[in-house]
Amino acid sequence: MTKYIAFACFGVILLWVFLFGGNVYAFGGCEENCQKCHTLEQKEVQGILAKMKAPDAKVLDIKMSPVRGLWEVSVDNKGSRGVMYVGFSKKYIMPGPIYEVETASNKTQESLGGLNEPADRYIDLAKIPVGDALLLGEKTARYKVIVFTDPDCPFCGKLHAELQKVVSESKDIAFYLKLMPLKFHPDAYWKSQSILCAKSLQRLEENFEKKPIPRPDCETKAVDETIKLGQELGITGTPALIMPDGLVVLGVRDAEKIMELVFNPKKKG
Q1: How far apart are CA 265 and CA 245, in angstroms?
Q2: pLDDT by residue (tens digit) across 225-245?
Q3: Cβ atoms of residues 89 and 229 within 8 Å
Q4: Given the DSSP bridges, would you call strands 173-179 and 143-149 parallel, antiparallel or unpaired?
Q5: What CATH number does the domain located at 35-113 have?
């Protein structure tokens, strides 16, 4: 009986290989090599861009993204270069950034850097109002760093802990926190409003600690204005730091690195 069962199982495997040409995959389907099953042509991307009201955008590159199930597409729209992600179904697209959890590195920004764009980008701090920002540190601090943050962004929480270390070590640095909730964090918008209504750094920190915070008890335009400002400045993800010299730093940095960038700024290339 045992021999019969073994032979029968072997026969089923042979039948499977015969019917499907030897391409037997695990439950992940094309997880071994997604390009065996999925393709994305430039003309298909152009069709997607046309539907998104960007018919003049040029496709620079198409490749697999770091996340399975998504294509990474680099485009140039009238001189402005960017990256978007297209699902294998070709029915959905999404913006970046994509972060790698282990290193907290911005993989989207790395791709943008490979498009021959300058590695460093600078913003005029005068263009960023801080009247509605939360202050971490002393108002009289010599150096001002502006931080675009999201109350439900886990990397923002990690960065905030590093910012707290900085202000505990140096009274010369202060951080002005601009709340910019991202659309894919569904509760981040009302939490940002709640925090700004109370003008409470403590409420933001309690939220980062996963403690419940109350719903907003006022109406404020500050959140919408910061979202709009971020779009105008080309800041699409959080956290983002604008250093005293205007250098844009995306993602998490430790306290030591932040202080190095403040006290010993890079020479503008």
Answers
A1: 7
A2: 999 999 999 888 899 999 999
A3: no
A4: parallel
A5: 3.10.450.70
**What digits encode the pLDDT tens for the residues 51-69?**
888 888 888 888 888 888 8
What span, in angstroms and rounded, lies between the C-alpha atoms of 218 and 44?
46
Amino acid at 163: L
* Distance (Å, whole) CA 43 – CA 63: 15
Helix (H) or strand (E) holding 24: none
Three-class SS state of 269 = coil
pLDDT tens sequence across 159-170: 999 999 999 999
Q: Give pLDDT tens digits for 90-123.
A: 888 888 888 888 777 788 877 776 655 445 789 9
CA 66 to chain centre: 13
Of 2.60.40.10, 3.40.50.10490, 3.40.30.10, 1.20.1740.10, which CATH number belongs to 125-263?
Answer: 3.40.30.10
What are the backbone dihedrals phi and psi of residue 71, each rounded to the nearest 5 degrees, phi first? Answer: -90, 145
Query: What's the Cα-to-Cα distance from 7 to each of 1, 3, 101, 258, rounded to whole Å?
Result: 10, 6, 46, 66
Of the candidates 40, 100, 41, the one whose C-alpha atom is nearest the C-alpha of residue 70 is: 40
Positive or negative torsion for Cα 208, 209, 215, 218: negative
Count helices and strands (H / E) in the chain: 8, 11
